[in-house]
Amino acid sequence: MLITFENNAIVFNLQNDSLHLKPLMLFAEKSFKSIKHFSNMSVILYESGEEIKKKYLLNWAFKIHKKAFPLTSPTFLNQLIASHEMPIHIITSNNTQVAQQTRVTIEKINTLEILVSFSHYHEKIFKYFQFIFKDAIRLGPKKTSFTLKITTKAAFLLLKNILSNKKIVSIPIHFITYGLSFKRSYQEDTALAEHMYEEKLKKSYKLLNICDTSTPSQMKKNYLYMLKKYHPDTVYHQNNEVIKLYTNRFQVIQNAYDFVKEHRRSLEL
Question: Against a cut of 0.70, is the pTM above it?
Fold first, then answer.
């Protein structure tokens, strides 16, 4: 199951033969008053008093989605729950409708970028890549291609795993690669490491609300302010999830401060 937001609605994409379709529809029929059925889509409309059931359904669907897309951000669930008043579109498709094989050409542009081209446009495959790689995708003038920027080792391994698939969202796929090797050279690894270091430095500066010209005193002042703001003791009376959230944020702030300090110390050597 792939969950997306489209046209002010939460969209569940799954196949007619999906193991999750029958329990999903049984729960929807029993739980919601306003549910409409069309040829390949069912729509659950929002009704007052059904919030708990709607949130339960979204939690359940997210767990299934997470198994298929393990790199999904945990904040995506919060976004779903916060959008529970939106209608839910349950879209199904028959495997016979997508039997035509799609050729996907992967061509290396430089150390960090690759060009992904498709033999013909298929919206579900594009949405799949967009969901997995998000901001790393840059769409081109043609609908059948895009540029993918691989800036982390995790994204690199994820791409490798995708290329081993025979299908994407039940659509037969044949991958063709040019100039792409997963045995990276020393220069490529060095360039990737440098890029990741710069990205981490930018995030650390942003987290501490400082810049590369900020003085040590300014940096320490902001650091102490952030520590106080996100100290777990300030939310001791809240539930465990909130305490855990603040604890993680507290640790991230400490790590960012240590990283920036170490970076500045290396510049002085």
Answer: no
